[in-house]
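Title: [Solved] LysR family transcriptional regulator 3D structure

Original question kept below for reference.
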Amino acid sequence: MTARVRLPPLNLLRVFHAVSRHRSLREAAEELLVSPQDVGQQIRLLEEALGVVLFEQGGRGIRLTKSAITLSHYVNAGFESFDVGVSRIINPRERVRITLNVSPYFGTHYLLPRLGLFRQIVPDAEIELTSVVDIVDMEREQIDLAVQWGYGDRMDVVSHLLLRDPKVICCHPNMAERIDSPEDLLRFSLLQPLRSKRLWPDILKYLGVKARELDGALTLDDAETMRLATQEGLGVGLISVLEAEEDIRLGRLAAPLGVRVLAGMPAETVPGFYLITTKAKQRSKHIAAVHRWLQRQDWENITPA
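Solution (posted by the thread starter after getting help):
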């Protein structure tokens, strides 16, 4: 039988919880209503108790070590559970509010057309629907569930793939006349999504084009901005299939290498929309009900708007 580990004082873990979320002694101190010096002293005591280094100086702030990153996952989950438990006994009859953050593209094309059905799942709860492209900390931003674009590789949340988001290489019709082969793509600016620096390298590798550094490429923070920039001829963009087909039909964009040139890419290199939450959030029956509903929908075969 494994010996029980002696836990450090809860107050030290509370300070660590604040520092790991803010990545700042000053901001953690403001939250805890103490001085930055007090926070620093508490962190040193925790490091001595655990026998590991948790934070290092990095640039203008502090950086979590590997030990701190590992510990933060469990400590954050623990404090989330405390919040849920205390809320249940203090406000047992208070109307439940569920905050669902949805990627703008997924929300517009897939969720909103089914919002009536979706609302029936938890008729006794208030659902707050938001749209933030990049969620850094679900607890800090008070989000219960989210549908986020990416590769499902976040370690601090529970992820479930809802729908793949294959891309079509698109450009302005005038630009398409100068693209006859995959190598010709490198003659133009490749528009990058902010939340994925690997998408173009994966695509170029799949097409057999020797990858190059894309640090100087124009980076865009959401799918709609990518679409508009591509229509304006600012570079070659990666557009989701539904919008690419519409714009090609209307003559706004062209797919110089064909709409299905990326159809055979390995699944792990294709981004998608992932349902994310935390284990602590799933302990709420209302959040768990919404999570099950979103997870069980056959989004691949739902006619999008």
